[in-house]
Amino acid sequence: MDMATIVRPGLDELVRGVGALTARRLDRRETAFAVADLLRAQFPSLDLLTPEEREGSPDRYVSQVLHAQDDFSIVAVVWRPGQGTVIHDHVSWCAFGVLSGIEHETLYRDHGDHLTEIGRADNRPGEVSGFAPPGDIHAVLNTSDEVGVSVHVYGADVRRLGSSVRRVYDLPVRQR
């Protein structure tokens, strides 16, 4: 099936809503929280992806760009059980909502020569959050026994950039 012919329930409304928010030119943090509020109000269903897209890949988590324009992108991420990211940060603000699975997030602070863990969260289906750089260093892992799906809205054109990741951190992690 051609990507242009896939019906994605709720995507057009989400694009219009995010577009209206980014047009307000709020600061990064305010935009992330406003988009998170919009996601809560217009929470997408798993039908946003086709059954095939919701299967993910046995090799690694999969990011599917659903919409991209200059000032924001909407991306679905599919994580099989046990799949996760490396420690990284982002090029822009982000708001995300978990549709299925459990996204276990570990947050870090950069001290130049090492990282310290500053928090953990288990993001469950129906939960929405937002963040903005700086202070967005984290790693995410699907700790559930089911395929995880989440929708992420980034304040950048990730199709043009190739990724939402600004930097990967390969530093020692020390206890506080």
Outline the structure in words:
The structure is a single chain. The chain is built from three helices and eleven strands. α1 packs antiparallel against α2 (28-41). The longest helix has 14 residues, at 28-41. β5 (103-110) and β6 form a beta hairpin. The protein is globular. It has helices spanning 11-22, 28-41, 158-161, and strands at residues 62-69, 72-79, 88-90, 94-100, 103-110, 115-123, 128-131, 138-142, 148-154, 165-168, 173-174. The chain has a five-stranded antiparallel β-sheet with strand order 1-2-9-4-7. It has a four-stranded mixed β-sheet with strand order 8-5-6-11, with no helix packed on it. By secondary structure, it is α+β, with helices and mostly antiparallel strands. It has one domain (3-174): Sandwich (Jelly Rolls), CATH 2.60.120.10.
Compact overview of the structure:
With 176 residues, the chain is an alpha+beta fold. The protein has three helices and eleven strands.
